[in-house]
Each structure stands twice: as structure tokens, then as C-alpha cells.
Write a structure and sequence with these properties.
By secondary structure, the chain is of the alpha+beta class. It has six helices and four strands. The chain has one domain.
Amino acid sequence: MAQMTRRGHIYVISNIGSFGEGIYKIGMTRRLEPLDRVKELGDASVPFLFDIHAMIFSDDAPALEAELHRRFSEQRVNLVNLRKEYFNISLGDIEKELHELSPDSEMILTTEAREFRESQAIREQQKSKQVDSAGGAGLPATL
């Protein structure tokens, strides 16, 4: 039974719309459906969905998570509350360490940030319409 409780998934996620580029959360879940944890994190607490860069099953997830956190301790964002598992680091550095600890692990090195990028595009369209309706003066039409 003790061995069963150590099994879980390590996830690496980002949310550039909420935290900016180069900030990654490295966490662990024991849920049968690990994506539920990522969805939960992206619900009401942040304005955009998280991108998933890795989801690695491990027979000893707490040890793998702890070792990753130890290796990236100097890049930790919050040095006061260690339960906040965010790191200012590159995906390449995460991938390198992860492959050393879990050679079969795979990572997604691109960041889709779909909602964030779509929101930016809508904002740009709105700005463009304001400029056009103001006669190109760059001021909102309501002024």
C-alpha cells in the first residue's frame, strides 16, 4: 500500500499570459487522471489556461519531484513559500535534468498559450479599429 501512494505524475506547465516567459511550475499529482490537476490550476485563479510541457508517470513521484526541485532551487521564484513550485528557468534546462532522472520522459518545448495569444490578437484588432475610426490619429473614437 505504501508503494502505491508513491506512484504519480510529475508535470511541467507554464502560463505566459499569467506569469510571463520562462516561468514553469514543476508539480506532482497522484490523481488517476493527472490532467484534472492541471485543469484545476487553470480554473479561476489565473486568467489563462496552462500549457503542458511534460506529464511523466513515476513509481516514486515524490522523490522525482523533490530531486527536480532540489536541482532547480536557485531558480525558485518564491523563496519564502516552498509549496509554490514555480521556477524561472528554460525548458531546455528542465529537459536536460528530467532526461537524466527519467530517461524515457518526453517534453513539449513549444508554448501554445492559445487563449493568451488570441486575446492579444483581439486587442490588436480593437486598437486597429480605434485608429481607423479616429481618422488615423491613434486616439479612441470616443475622445
